[in-house]
């Protein structure tokens, strides 16, 4: 049970006190009424004795009486009837509430912290490891901190309102005060009249009330003297006469009213009467208003809401009509002068709650002392001696009647020492209806004696008497009398000092069962239960106490059941191991019964305390029920905030309720919310719980939404809210932007650079304020989720914002203006445009969400001024989304409320510094806090005739239109792409005619010239003319603008050439358009526009090419060798080109025509075609292959300058009558933008700066070895790019189209085949982890194949030679061996002529011959030197001979450790020797 103010001993002693009646004359009443008090009320604060009293028992032993309290009431007081008693008790409970501002009492029990005394809902779950310490503290403390003063008030009022009964005498009057005023003419006559009146009331038999303890009631004569208005001498003389007449112990002179009521009005006097007359109103006075509503008869309250008929619930008729009910309400009672015939406590409870009437205004502190002294005199000199005398008389009567020994006290052993009579169980007892004992019956005399002893705290003798009476009553089967004796015997046993015997709890259980089941008297059973529970609690038997309290709950009284269930719940909390869930369950039951009894506040408190246990434990249905009840009770008690909070909890959790129940919850919530909003007004919007707003998934888009395609125009895709965020793509766009920003800022990226983010979400970097542009919309995408199984209807949906005006035109960061918010405008249901000149806010009129649906809403803001914007939340009307089918359903507007939800986004967790790693800190997320910057240009890009599919290498001409849709001019237009080889805008010198897309529809994308096939046309081109400056591909292209500016509203159309990707398949190609404003602003330096296209590439041609050395020097050139420069030696090469049609005819391609073969190199060029076909060009049908052979020569650079060395020579060999100028746009553009092969190229545009630096550093590290490798490699290196230009004839929609394109083949090494299609590399499935650094790669050494290309050999001899063998047997023929050094270093050469062919096959074909002269030569050739060696061959007979037998060995002169390597042998050199 909860903590009480009194101890259990004090509580029991105050429950049974001597009763004293008061009979006043009219004048005496008039004297006390000056103080607004009756005489009993006047005495009440002073009825507890402050000193000890003494009396002697029948054995002449002194009994000490401590802290005795007497009860003084008017003789006309009668106990209230049952309905009135219930009303009094209900009011006493309702006006006693927990104080509003008291500190919370938190009880730790197991893994719960329970806030007991406060009505707010608080719960926490500490670590369960603390349970041991918590339980130790609980078990060591006598009481815990929860108090229930309403229960104490109920208990006190209940016990004081108990009607007097015939079976017990504890509440019968022991004495009667006769009060007469000193102003009476003859006071003694008045005393005589009052005495006769008292005698008539007691002995006439006309009245059943009041009841008297013994026939010779003590009469105490009080003379009341009014000091302020009376003759004191006369009063003293009358008092002396009274002492003579009644004795000094039977009368008293009480002097009061020492001052008049008006004289000392300003002096503040203590008011000891307030705590008695207004005891129930101390805690919470303002609750009186609710008392009038709540305190009807409890059984009828809540009958409607429980679905019960109030007439069925009236169960009090059982106790009223039961035959064992002794005090019938129809009995006559003494007529009352007071219109309220009830106990004084009842009158006090019902006193008007208006301004309290001052009491005791005529009394001084001396008067208080007089009254206190009077009570003490009356008790010690009158009452206690009277009781002592009656105890002796009763003892003597009992001894004489039963023939016992002198004293009952001394005969205890004789009475109780022998064999005990077994007590009969309740089931065996007969119901003796109407059994009444006469007043002189010995059994009643024993009971009277027991009650007298009990009242004066002689508990041992009282217990013995109760025990004796109990046996007698049980033997007579007088169950009501027996139950009363059992009850008081148990209490007396408990109160005996020293505890000679244990508390007989079974006595109480038997008494309760008898009262309830046999006697049908719930009042006595309830009193017995209250006493026993308090005793059990004091003995820490909380489980037994809880069981007893729960047993006493019944349907006849909801208030009693609620209070007892609440106390049982506190018992469970007080146990050694607190039973928290039992506490919560019984608090729920108590709350339900409180609600039925009309105690709404107490019901709310119980449910709130129980919620602390169920909250967050997964008991969702129980939690919903509790919250629903809390919401209803709070709304009834005019606490709409608490009601809304409770209903909110039901709706925001994932409810397991049915759809019908959820709809009912939602309607209830909307009704409560609407009522509360009407009370608070429209000034502040309340938070709505539905639908669930996923703040972290909020996305913000800055800028205009993209336009759709218009006819042939295709708009740039840019960024939209329909695209999913991809982190890799975002990083790619960032790198593209960094690249173009670096180009725009002369090669360096500014420190303040921040990548443009048009769409912000939870995965983007939101640590900084995003930048938005004035007059450009901001779209906020919100994600709503409906957790319910019923639809929701949202309307008038808009954003809440706060805006601070700021001017950024100044140099110091701008000036700050006032802060404006739209909360007031958004809160009103009427649409307003008051703030549209600052920020225009979009309103969505209707937004419906289906059950359990997640739906996206996009809300737009259009800023009109610069400044700082903060998006605070969203405001909307919430409705149920259901249409009422029945006629009596509520209209839709009643089920619609307006509220808001805040947008609160938690930023990313910080994890950089040590402090951040060791704690949980989150950074800011500023995606909803953009800075509105001054106007910036806005670019839109449209693509005209842009294809979706191309053949590999196909060239297509499209057009791009740039439109400035803003009011600000733009400049610095550039474009970057992930695939720069895919497109070109042409060179600055390219011819831009025709200038419109329609005029260029049927024209070739190339620049063509009519020219018959002949020797190659050569032109010299600088890479800088096509944007290649750094040796790398041009990743960023600048788009030329007229006057460098694109004005507001202006549009520019320029051509765009596209080339199909090399590999087939679908290719994603990204463009990033960069532009700036002509006015530089500190906030936003540039803007970008993104575009992504997907191109499907189909197979076209496969080209393979091989380069071979030419082994002959033409005669015409032989004579000019001395005059040529070193660079023109070894200047011939053969190029074989193999072209195959690998198209699968899926695109409708009929055939390919090879119209031209061009070359581009800084060292070589194609000279002529060796095998021209008969047709004008080569036709290749599907899967056909064609072969072409070309002669290539070294380039003739007229000026050996550095500029000339950087230029490329383009040579065109057209196979038809039309020459395509390959050195112009777009052919040369795509050549310079071509994809590089996997192997790093040397000395061309493929050499980036990084690769050159890497190569140089390695050269320094590896010393001469790497240099040797480089020199040897260059001997066989060829840098010649072949460009195959083709046309394809396609049939599409019964029309023949001509497609054209170009393929590139890069020849790098002599004898090594190059292909236009790069071989697919096998992807490595798994990469092994490396725990140790890799071993450095070994120093690269030139291979034997590379070393065999150092020297090029060529034999010069006559093809036939005539010799007269008959005349001269030996034929000597002069032969010249030409040695060409192909490297750029000195080479040591050894020529060995001793080699002979030994194979029989070659001997059969070629005859044997001998070389004359020296058989071995050692030479050293300078770099690219050509040396001629004269030899003589000796033949012995005519025949065909192979002169290619000399073996040539070579090594670089600077490498001493390297052996000579055999050089590649030349082709067979056959000579015919004729005999003449």
What does this protein structure show overall?
- With 1476 residues, the protein is α+β, with helices and mostly antiparallel strands.
- The protein has 36 helices and 58 strands.
- Strands 13, 25, 27, 29, 31, 34, 39, 41, 43, 45 and 46 form an 11-stranded antiparallel sheet that branches.
- A hairpin with a 2-residue loop joins strand 45 (1277-1292) and strand 46.
- The radius of gyration is 59 Å and the shape is elongated.
- The protein starts with 7 loop residues before the first helix and ends with a strand.
N/C terminus separation:
147 Å
Estimate the global geometry from the Cα principal axes: elongated
Number of helices: 36
Q: Using DSSP, what is the number of strands?
A: 58
The secondary-structure class comes to alpha+beta
Rg of Cα set:
59 Å
Mean pLDDT: 79
Poorly predicted tracts of residues: 117-145, 280-333, 336-354, 404-434, 883-893, 1114-1129, 1238-1264, 1321-1327
Q: Proportion of β residues?
A: 25-35%
Q: Percent range for helical residues?
A: 25-40%
How many strands, which pairing sense, and closed or not: the largest β-sheet?
A: 11 strands, antiparallel
Task: Give the tags.
1476 residues; alpha+beta; 11-stranded antiparallel β-sheet; 7-stranded mixed β-sheet; 36 helices; 58 strands; 29% helix; elongated
């Amino acid at each position: 049970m909860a903590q009480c103010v009194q101890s259990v001993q004090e509580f029991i002693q105050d429950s049974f006190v001597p009763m004293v009646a008061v009979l006043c004359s009219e004048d005496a009443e008039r004297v006390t009424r000056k103080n607004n008090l009756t005489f009993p009320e006047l005495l009440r604060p002073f009825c507890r004795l402050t000193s000890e009293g003494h009396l002697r028992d029948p054995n002449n032993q002194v009994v000490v009486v401590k802290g005795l309290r007497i009860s003084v009431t008017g003789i006309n007081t009668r106990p209230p009837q049952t309905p009135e008693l219930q009303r009094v008790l209900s009011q006493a409970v309702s006006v006693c509430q927990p104080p509003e501002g008291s500190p919370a009492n938190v009880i730790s029990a197991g893994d719960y912290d329970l806030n007991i005394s406060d009505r707010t809902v608080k719960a926490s779950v500490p670590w369960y490891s603390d349970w041991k310490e918590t339980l130790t503290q609980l078990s060591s403390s006598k009481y815990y901190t929860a108090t229930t003063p309403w229960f104490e008030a109920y208990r006190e009022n209940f016990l004081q309102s108990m009607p007097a009964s015939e079976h017990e005498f504890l509440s019968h009057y022991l004495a009667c005060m006769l009060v007469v005023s000193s102003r009476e003419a003859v006071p003694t006559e008045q005393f005589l009249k009052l005495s006769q009146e008292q005698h008539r009331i007691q002995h006439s038999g006309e009245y059943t009330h009041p009841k008297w303890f013994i026939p010779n009631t003590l009469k105490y004569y009080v003379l009341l003297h009014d000091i302020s208005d009376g003759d004191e001498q006369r009063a003293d003389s009358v008092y002396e006469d009274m002492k003579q007449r009644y004795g000094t112990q039977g009368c008293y002179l009480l002097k009061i009213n020492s001052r008049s009521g008006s004289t000392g009005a300003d002096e503040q006097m203590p008011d000891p009467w307030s705590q008695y007359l207004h005891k129930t109103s101390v805690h919470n006075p303002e609750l009186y208003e609710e008392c009038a509503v709540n305190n009807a008869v409890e059984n009828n309250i809540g009958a409607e809401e429980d679905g019960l008929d109030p007439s069925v619930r009236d169960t009090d008729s059982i106790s009223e009509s039961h035959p064992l009910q002794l005090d019938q309400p129809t009995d006559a009672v003494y007529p009352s002068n007071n219109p309220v015939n009830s106990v004084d406590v009842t009158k006090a409870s019902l006193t008007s709650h208006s301004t309290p009437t001052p009491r005791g205004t005529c009394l001084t502190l001396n008067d208080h002392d007089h009254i206190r002294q009077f009570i003490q005199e009356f008790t010690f000199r009158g009452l206690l001696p009277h009781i002592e005398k009656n105890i002796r008389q009763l003892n003597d009567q009992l001894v004489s009647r039963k023939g016992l020994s002198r004293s009952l006290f001394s005969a205890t052993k004789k009475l109780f020492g022998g064999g005990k009579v077994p007590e009969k169980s309740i089931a065996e007892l007969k119901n003796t209806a109407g059994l009444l004992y006469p007043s002189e019956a010995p059994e009643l005399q024993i009971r009277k004696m027991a009650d007298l002893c009990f009242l004066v705290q002689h508990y041992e003798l009282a217990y013995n008497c109760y025990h004796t009476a109990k046996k007698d009553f049980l033997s007579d089967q007088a169950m009501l009398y027996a139950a009363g004796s059992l009850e008081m015997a148990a209490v007396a046993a408990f109160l005996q000092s020293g505890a000679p015997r244990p508390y007989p709890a079974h006595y109480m259980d038997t008494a309760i069962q008898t009262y309830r089941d046999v006697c049908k008297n719930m009042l006595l059973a309830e009193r017995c239960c209250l006493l026993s529970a308090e005793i059990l609690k004091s003995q820490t038997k909380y489980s037994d106490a809880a069981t007893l309290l729960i047993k006493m709950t019944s349907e006849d009284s909801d208030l009693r059941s609620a209070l007892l269930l609440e106390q049982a719940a506190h018992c469970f909390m007080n146990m050694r191991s607190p039973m928290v869930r039992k506490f919560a369950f019984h608090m729920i039951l108590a709350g339900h019964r409180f609600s039925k009894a009309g105690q709404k506040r107490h019901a709310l408190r119980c449910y709130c305390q129980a919620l602390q246990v169920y909250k967050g434990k997964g008991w969702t249905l129980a939690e919903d029920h509790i919250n629903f009840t809390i919401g209803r009770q709070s709304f009834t008690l005019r606490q709409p905030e608490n009601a809304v909070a409770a209903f909110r909890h039901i709706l925001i959790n994932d409810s397991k309720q049915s759809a019908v129940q959820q709809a009912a919850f939602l309607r209830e919530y909307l009704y409560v919310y609407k009522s509360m909003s009407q009370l608070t007004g429209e000034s502040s919007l309340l938070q709505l719980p539905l639908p669930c707003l996923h703040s972290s998934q909020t996305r913000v888009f800055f800028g205009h939404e993209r336009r759709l395609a218009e006819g042939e125009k295709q708009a740039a895709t840019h960024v939209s809210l329909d695209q999913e965020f991809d982190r890799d793509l975002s990083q790619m766009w960032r790198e593209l932007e960094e690249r173009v920003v670096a180009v725009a800022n002369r090669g360096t990226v500014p420190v303040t650079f921040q990548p443009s983010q048009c769409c912000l979400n939870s995965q983007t970097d939101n640590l900084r304020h995003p930048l938005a542009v004035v007059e450009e919309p901001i779209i906020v995408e919100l994600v709503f989720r409906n957790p319910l199984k019923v639809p929701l209807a949202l309307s008038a949906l808009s954003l809440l914002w706060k805006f601070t005006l700021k001017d950024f035109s100044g140099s110091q960061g701008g000036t700050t203006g006032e802060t404006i918010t739209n909360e007031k405008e958004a809160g009103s249901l009427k649409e307003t445009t008051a703030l549209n000149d600052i920020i225009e806010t979009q309103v969505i009129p209707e937004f419906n969400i289906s059950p359990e649906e997640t739906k996206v809403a996009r809300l737009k803001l259009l800023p009109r001024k610069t400044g700082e914007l903060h998006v605070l939340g969203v405001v909307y009307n919430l409705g149920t989304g259901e249409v009422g089918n029945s006629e009596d359903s509520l209209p839709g507007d009643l089920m619609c409320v307006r509220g808001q939800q805040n947008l609160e986004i938690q930023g990313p967790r910080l994890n950089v510094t040590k402090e951040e790693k060791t704690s949980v800190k989150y950074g800011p997320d500023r995606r909803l806090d953009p800075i509105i910057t001054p106007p910036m240009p806005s670019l839109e890009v449209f693509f005209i005739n842009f294809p979706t599919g191309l053949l590999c290498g196909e060239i297509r001409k499209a057009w791009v239109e740039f439109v400035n849709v803003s009011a600000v001019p733009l400049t610095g237009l550039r474009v970057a792409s992930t695939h720069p080889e895919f497109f070109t805008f042409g060179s600055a010198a390219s011819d831009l005619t025709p200038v419109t897309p329609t005029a260029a529809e049927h024209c070739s994308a190339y620049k063509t010239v009519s020219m018959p096939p002949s020797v190659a046309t050569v032109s010299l081109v600088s890479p800088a003319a096509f944007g290649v400056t750094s040796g790398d591909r041009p990743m960023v292209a600048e788009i030329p603008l007229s006057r460098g500016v694109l004005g507001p509203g202006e549009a520019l159309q320029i051509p765009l050439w596209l080339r199909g990707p090399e590999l087939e398949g679908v290719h994603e190609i990204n463009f990033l358009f960069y532009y700036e404003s002509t006015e530089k602003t500190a906030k936003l330096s540039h803007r970008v526009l993104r575009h992504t296209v997907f191109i499907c590439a189909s197979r076209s041609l496969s080209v393979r090419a091989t380069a071979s050395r030419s082994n002959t020097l033409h005669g015409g050139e032989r004579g000019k060798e001395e005059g040529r420069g070193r660079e023109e030696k070894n200047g011939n090469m053969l190029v074989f080109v193999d072209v195959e049609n690998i198209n699968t005819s899926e695109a409708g391609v009929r055939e390919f025509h090879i119209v031209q073969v061009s070359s581009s190199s800084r060292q070589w060029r194609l000279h002529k075609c060796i095998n021209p076909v008969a047709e004008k060009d080569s036709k290749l049908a599907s899967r056909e292959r064609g072969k072409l052979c070309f002669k290539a020569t070294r380039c003739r650079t007229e000026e050996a300058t550095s500029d000339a060395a950087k230029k490329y020579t383009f040579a065109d060999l057209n196979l038809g009558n039309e020459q395509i100028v390959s050195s112009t746009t777009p052919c040369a553009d795509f050549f310079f933008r071509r994809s590089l092969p996997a192997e790093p190229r040397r000395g061309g545009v493929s050499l980036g700066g990084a690769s050159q630096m890497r190569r140089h550093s390695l050269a320094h590290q590896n010393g001469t070895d790497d240099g040797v490798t480089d020199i040897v490699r260059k001997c066989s290196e060829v840098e010649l790019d072949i460009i195959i230009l083709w046309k394809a004839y396609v049939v599409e929609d019964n029309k023949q189209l001509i497609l054209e394109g170009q393929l590139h083949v890069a020849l790098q090494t002599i004898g090594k085949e190059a292909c236009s299609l790069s071989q697919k590399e096998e992807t490595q499935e798994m990469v092994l982890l490396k725990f140790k650094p890799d071993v450095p790669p070994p120093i690269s050494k030139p291979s034997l194949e590379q070393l065999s290309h150092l020297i090029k050999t060529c034999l010069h001899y006559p093809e036939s030679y005539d010799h007269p063998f008959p005349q001269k047997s030996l034929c000597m023929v002069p032969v010249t061996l030409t040695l060409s050094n192909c490297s750029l270093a000195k080479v040591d050469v050894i020529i060995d002529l001793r080699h002979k062919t030994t194979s029989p096959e070659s001997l059969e074909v070629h005859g044997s011959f001998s070389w004359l002269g020296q058989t071995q030569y050692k030479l050293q050739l300078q770099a690219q030197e050509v040396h001629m060696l004269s030899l003589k061959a000796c033949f012995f007979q005519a025949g065909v001979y192979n002169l290619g037998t000399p073996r040539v060995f070579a090594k670089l002169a600077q490498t001493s450790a390297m052996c000579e390597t055999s050089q590649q042998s030349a082709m067979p050199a056959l000579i015919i020797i004729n005999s003449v």
